[in-house]
Amino acid sequence: MALLTPYWGLDGLLILSSLMVAAYLFMTRKFNYWSKRGVKEVPPTPFVGNFMDCLLSRKSASEFVKDLYNYSEGLPFLGFYIFDKPFLLIRDPELVKQVLVKDFNYFADRHATTDRKCDRLGSATMFLMKNPGWKSLRTKLTPIFTTGKLKKMFELMLVIADDLAKHLDSLHLEGEGKVIEFKDICGNFTTDMIGSTAFGLRVGSLENPKAPFRVYGRKIFECDLYRSMEFLTIFFCPGVVKFFKSKFFGKAATNFLRSIFWDVIDQRISSGETRNDLIDSLIDIREKHKNDETLTDYTFDGDDLVAQAAVFFIAGFETSATTISFTLYELALNPDIQETLRAEIHDALANTDGKITYDMIMKLPYLDMVISETLRKYPPLGFLDRVAVDDYKMPNSDLVLEKGTPIFISMIGSHYDPQYFPNPEKYDPLRFSDEAKRSRPNCIYFPFGEGPHICIGVRLGLMQSKLGVVQILKDYEISPCKKTKIPIALDPKGLATTSLGGLYLNIRKISTAAG
After folding, report:
1. Residue 60 CB: number of other CB atoms within 10 A?
2. Which of 14, 77, 186, 498 has the highest Cβ tally under 10 A?
């Protein structure tokens, strides 16, 4: 005798059908959440919501959020679903300003989260830390990036810039030049720079692309299925990270960074050497606050201290490498812009007897416009995420956001909106002339974020990127080759903006180099 009918097979079919119906009803129970509140929503698919393309790696997270932005044209915001959870896309620039700046206290936390127990290194970074710990930590780390300290870091960077010049010389790029994969060489260069300015180490990635720092740096941003799923859970489904044990830096890189950091800090303390770098600053902060009972959610010791060095490492090399390589790509496709920028660089070098200086790098107006336009088209991370930490009444609307509602903002969507940037696919540095910038509203261009949560190392990143571009362009001409992809394809598995299959360009030494 079977349970429900005379037949076991029929019983099994009935039970399975009942479970499937129950699962369907459970996973779709919230699918009228936004429509009930009068908010337009993207029609969700049972079990996955609107997240299918990301799960199948057909689109990157940045492209997914950009598509939501385009879908919501003419609307201030749009509802969507990740699995069964309601999310809100904010589109209107004034609302973006409210969320990121004016009403920051309601949205001070990122939605992205890692599990404190299985990934303390990730959860303790300033990038992912929640309040009140985040605000306290940011206040204590901000002095690391004063103008005086950046100038001292710049002197360390110039040594690495010379290494880049020697490396390019060794490739014998006279005559017709050679085809080079620039994504990796820029990563080698910026890894060496951040290794020097943050850790006080001569990493040697330009000489040896298999140097440990470079190997583990690549692993952090590896565009394979496993890393893609780790990042997707951290940014979109943080409720499951403890089950998947997702790590912000990845398991191998977490262990490496923990080991190398303590080796460096112990050596620095025992030797008494000072380099005015990140390690010196963290040692000073550690001593100053080691008995500080006001600290909440973190201490300046153990993984909490390692986390700050680790996040500066990945942010320092990846964002600058991305910016330099995409700038060179666009300059190769736009030789007139390349020539204009090279002329500005040569004129500036003529006034400094051929020497690159901090003031020179930071005061080249056309270079600044070029870098800004690159960051418009290729922001390192194409979206921003926040979460409502309390109920919030949306301005000029009857909508009340419930506490815990995730908020997403599309950087790329705004940067490619023809309303603000006509013919957005065109690379045009003149979009960032003083007059053009004044004509645009606030909070439609924000490659490093906006408001109190803006990237703390933005000036360091821009300094590195500008130095890399100047060091290459002053002596070399960049042009497309047969392997150059036009238009460039972005990797759908990448969290950061990264080219699919590399970034190949021809580089040729020019005979009229300045200096």
Report:
1. 28
2. 186
